[in-house]
Structure formats: C-alpha cells, structure tokens
Amino acid sequence: MSSVRRTSVSLLLACAVGLVACTRQEEPSGNGQDDQAFLKVRTTAISQASRSLTAVTGQSLAVDAVIGITLKGADTPADYAYSNVPYTLESIEMTETSATEQWTTPSDIILRRPKATLTAYYPYDEQIDPYAVNINGMDGIDWLYCPWTTEVISARWPDVTLTMHHAQAILRVELRREGYAGEGKLKFIKIASTALAMQGVFNTSTGSYTTTSGTSLIDQQYAEGEELQLPADPNVICSDEWFFLPVALSSSEDVDITFTVKVDKRSLETTTTISPSAFQCGRIHLFPLKVMNSELEVSPVTIIPWETQDDSHNMKPTN
User: Fold this and answer.
1) Torsion of CA 107, 108, 111, 112, to 10 degrees
2) E strands, 254-306, where?
3) What is the pLDDT of residues 88-101, one digit of tens each?
4) Could you read off the pLDDT of 145-179 as tens digits, one per residue?
5) Residue 104's beta-bridge partner residues?
6) What are the φ/ψ torsions at residue 184 (nearest 5 degrees)?
7) For residue 109, which of 159, 74, 71 has the smallest C-alpha distance?
C-alpha cells in the first residue's frame, strides 16, 4: 500500500491562524532599545482553504517535528540572511482556548533593527535547497511550506507565527465490487493523466513548482501477500491514496484521466474526463470505482477539504 503520511488535526490551534503582525495589538516582546534579538517561533498552524470560501482551519505539527527557516533582510538581503536553520517543536501546552508551542534551535537566528522576512518548510532536511525541493508523490511525504511572511520581523518584533500550506494534492480511490465474482485481490492500480505529475521541484519561499515531464502516472504495485483486498460486501470499500502535483495546462478543455486495475488475473480499465482546474494543492480528490466482472466504472470526482478526510483508510497522521 502507499505510505502517505500527513499532519494530525488539532482544532485548538485554529485560533493561532491570523496572528499576523499587521494586526498585532500587543506590545512588542523585544526591547525597543536593543539592536538585536533572537527570533522566536511562537506558533505554527497549517492552512486549508475550502473551494467555496477562504475559511482557514488549524492543524498542528507533532512534538519533535523539525522545520527549516530561511530569513533575509527586507532592505539588505545580501548582508543579513540565514538559510535553512532547523527549529524543533519541543512541547505544546494546551488550554481550553489556545495552545502554546515551545521551539528550540541549535543555531539561533539573530534579528537586527532593520525589517526582515522569512520562509519555512517541513519536514526539515539539512541537505536540501529550500528554493528547490525535489518532490516525489510516491514517497508519501506531506511537504508543508510557509511563503515569505508579511509579518513585521525585527529586533523589536522577534515573535513570529507561521502559517503552513500543503505543497501537494491527494488523489484517493475507493473501490467496491459490483457483481464481481472473483477473490478480489488487487495486484496494481495505475492512474494516468496530463493533469497530474508525481515529481517536481518546489520553491518553499513562493509556493511555486515545476513538474517533471514523463511523471504523469501513479503506478502502485502491490507485492504478493500485500495485495489490496476487495471486500466481498458491495457496501464496503477498500481504498488507497497518493500525493501528487497538479499540472497547469494551457487549454481549458477537459482532459482524460485513465484508471487501470489488475484484480486477480483480470486487467480492467476505464477513462473519464476532468476539468484541467479540478486538481488543486491542499485538497483531496476522491474517485469512486466499481469493479465488475468485465469492466471498471468510475464516478465523478469529489473534492474534499483536507481537514475533513477520513483517517480510517490508509492515510495516517505524520508523527
């Protein structure tokens, strides 16, 4: 099965979203007379905008999660800059209305009087370039990013709240049998469309990415003894899911998406069309499939906001 991992939901952190500097009313935590101060990560929250409105919900990283922060001065970036500095979430103190996070770093970012801006990503990797992260959806990593923040960051304003975004989308299939009389062991699932890519290079500072050509195929092979089992009850489903990158297409015409499964010794295939704008990062795209004796039937895609997913299937929270 695919090893997709994603962040766990913590509704108590919803209040953390929106603590941006442009709306700060509290006194600055830095000393206004000081020329320097240590950067303090106050809270992280993971953003999820619905398709119909820009509602933001909160999700949290787990304790021991490590993010990478890159900072540059707004006016003198060449002289005032830090790249890919690790910050570790040591603890979370929960109350009925809020959560306080404690972050540590082995290498402090020292803020100056001039204003600065920063970007962050998760999970941290000391070897990667934050401006060019290689992503492969089959790796099952939930890459998160915070683009260049608009908060006022300086020695006077050393506290920062990071709003993280999902860099990828999710494609989920839910399979059920419809008159299929075989044992129901799924050997592979393949999904092909020019509207998706499994690999790309991601810029965590802007949220932009370029997809790798020739990777428009989800190819999930199940080893012997680890096959996905089609339930005998037609009212019960089995499912799998994968991260992917939506591909920006120049045409507005619908594009094909083809599903191929091998169940027992039979290969079944079906093709449907989708809008080129249907796939979007930070959302789950659900395709129901019915497995019959001689054909495969797909229903129209359902778009599910990330935070309303069902954890009872294969996708598990990131630890």
Assistant:
1) -70
2) 255-263, 266-274, 283-291, 296-298, 302-305
3) 999 988 877 777 78
4) 999 887 778 888 888 888 888 999 999 999 999 99
5) 88
6) 95, 30
7) 71
